[in-house]
Amino acid sequence: MLGLGKFDHHFSTSANAGPLPQANAVGRFGSIGWGDAVKLMLKVEPDDGRIAQARFQAFGCSSAIAASAALTDMITGKTIDEASGISAAAIADYLGDLPRERMYCAVMTFEALQQAIGSFRGKAAVAEADAPPVCKCLGVGQMMIERTIRFNRLTSLDDVTAYTKAAGSCSTCFKQIESLLARVNAEMVEDGLIPAEDAYRIGSAMPRATELKPHGAPAPAANIFAAKATPAHLRPIAKAAPRPATPPAGLVDAPPQEALIAEAVEELRPHLQRDGGDCEFVSLDGNIVYVRLSGNCVGCQLSSVTLSGVQAKLVEKFGRPLRVVPVS
């Protein structure tokens, strides 16, 4: 298969989705907060280091699932040493038509593969959690950004966002990402990886929208009555307190717990809607949360990963066991 057909094949028909109980190499990357997550499980033959079986579990858009499925096909039958040479660009090329704005999905599966290989070789996962993330909105760390820039030879800020999501939300980390890209590109020029004329330089890109917004509190308005007491007939009439906003339909009489769960589900909806899917809160019965899936989220593959992601988000938020069940 070529082009979009190959993408659809890995998205909809992969036999490698699901757990692998006998795995002896496991790698994870991403999170619900990042918007996408993948767990890669490998069964590696101990005598020759050959990958006998590879499976994955993924949460996120169709590209995340397709990239994870493609990687399992690519590495099955290869040795660990051969698999370690596979790049994010190779995963994207194997898919045939991964959109540029979804390149971070190939990077995510690449990172999961590196973690799995490290676990098989007895190496501890790289401890990046101790350092504060550069992109706080999406939790993207400096080491991941540097690796991605270098391995994929990125030279523009738009590419950095497409491959890592960094600065893709509020853009307050724009200057940090810009400085990081310029520094790593300068090192790449010294190492002969890119020509000097291709290297990014500070100021080459227009600041993103949030960088152009004025900061700080506005100056207080002048008070013409500051010098003396204001006569009673000139004092402003106190405004009535604003009426509370009308609750969403279906939650008028809902208890606070249901409203909070509905709010948590709403936080996940944009990640699903961008690929034509959706998930909405229906009701709560004890510890069972009923939701309605629609669009691309309906189907054996997407429904399972979506429900798992929603459930993980709710358990993390409320600190108690909750079960998410779909209704028609």
TrEMBL record:
Domain NIF system FeS cluster assembly NifU C-terminal positions: 261-325
Residue ranges occupied by any NIF system FeS cluster assembly NifU N-terminal domain in the UniProt entry: 9-125
Classification via Pfam families: Fer2_BFD, NifU, NifU_N
InterPro entries in alphabetical order: BFD-like_2Fe2S-bd_dom, BFD-like_2Fe2S-bd_dom_sf, FSCA_dom_sf, N_fixation_NifU, NIF_FeS_clus_asmbl_NifU, NIF_FeS_clus_asmbl_NifU_C, NIF_FeS_clus_asmbl_NifU_N
Gene Ontology MF terms in the entry: 2 iron, 2 sulfur cluster binding; iron ion binding
Ligand binding (Fe cation): C61, C105
Nuclease recorded as keyword: no
Record: residues binding [2Fe-2S] cluster: C135, C137, C170, C173
Keyword set, alphabetical order: 2Fe-2S, Iron, Iron-sulfur, Metal-binding, Nitrogen fixation
Start and end residues of each BFD-like [2Fe-2S]-binding domain: 134-182
Binding note for cofactor: Binds 1 Fe cation per subunit. Binds 1 [2Fe-2S] cluster per subunit.
Sections of the chain in a coiled coil: none
Single GO biological process annotation from the record: iron-sulfur cluster assembly
Cofactor(s) listed: [2Fe-2S] cluster; Fe cation
Function: May be involved in the formation or repair of [Fe-S] clusters present in iron-sulfur proteins.
Family: Belongs to the NifU family.
Protein name per its UniProtKB record: Nitrogen fixation protein NifU
